[in-house]
Amino acid sequence: MIVVVSGPGGVGKGTIVDALVERDDRLFLSRSWTTREQRPSESDDAYVFVTSEEFEQRIEAGGFLEWTEFLGNYYGSPIPEPGDDRDLVLEIEVDGAQQVKRIHPDALLIFVLPPSREEQERRLRGRGDLDHKVLARLKKAEEEEPIGRQLADHAVVNDDLEATINQMLEIIDAARSA
Ligand SMILES: Nc1ncnc2c1ncn2[C@@H]1O[C@H](COP(=O)(O)OP(=O)(O)OP(=O)(O)O)[C@@H](O)[C@H]1O
After folding, report:
1. Which domains, ranges and CATH numbers included, belong to the chain?
2. In sequence order, which residues have a C-beta less than 8 Å from that of residue 68 and are 6 or more positions away?
3. Where are any strands of DSSP class E within 9-78?
4. Mutate-to-test residue for ligand 1 from 11, 123, 140, highest number of ligand atoms within 8 A of CB
5. Hey, which of 72, 96, 97, 148 would disulfide with 66, CB 3.0 to 4.6 Å?
């Protein structure tokens, strides 16, 4: 099974998926590939950092579930190695979620929403995002939320974190036994 977790910037996707894979050992978090430079503050396993040539070769070989180009860099979710029978969790943007749904209509898509735009802004600022990035993410959220909601199998409001994680574990369990 493929579980896609999508939603606007700063809503808490990263925090949630980390908790999901920690609590459910049948879940496996896919690490994205990127051609952008590793930030000094970033751990080596934040992404698989590759060259444009390596990325393009993998595109040619059909090796991505979804990929996109953003501000001159590639980002993509590699198709996992065969033999791993855990359920795959992808934390991706709305356009990536659309691509995955097109190729794998049976993927479980959970769209995470903020309790309010004000709270989303508070979370973005709280983790130290710069002003222009905060504004860009809020604007993008306005545009993408209607699309994400429509595409999603489930929309979850991330108000209380613990409740959200439990709700998502239940949704995943229910999809497994469906
Ligand atoms: N339910 C919650 N209540 C309060 N704060 C939260 C909650 N969930 C996440 N946060 C906080 O909000 C901030 C943004 O969370 P996170 O980085 O996981 O968002 P994200 O959706 O992965 O963002 P991006 O799309 O930009 O990667 C973090 O500081 C996180 O600790």
Report:
1. 2-30+86-176 (3.40.50.300), 31-79 (3.30.63.10)
2. 74, 75, 76, 93, 95, 96
3. 27-29, 33-34, 48-49, 64-70, 73-78
4. 123
5. 96
Q: Decide: residue 85, CB within 10 A, 0-12 exposed, 13-18 middle, 19+ buried.
A: exposed
Q: How far is CA 84 from CA 29, 31, 92, 95, 120, in A?
A: 12, 14, 21, 26, 35
pLDDT tens, N- to C-terminus, the chain (178 residues):
999 999 999 999 999 999 999 999 999 998 999 999 998 888 888 899 999 999 999 999 999 999 999 778 999 999 988 788 899 999 998 989 999 999 999 999 999 999 999 999 999 999 888 999 899 999 999 999 999 999 999 999 999 999 999 999 999 999 999 8
Q: How far is the CA of 69 from the centre of ligand 1 (A)?
A: 24
Q: Contact, 16 vs 158, CB < 8 A?
A: yes
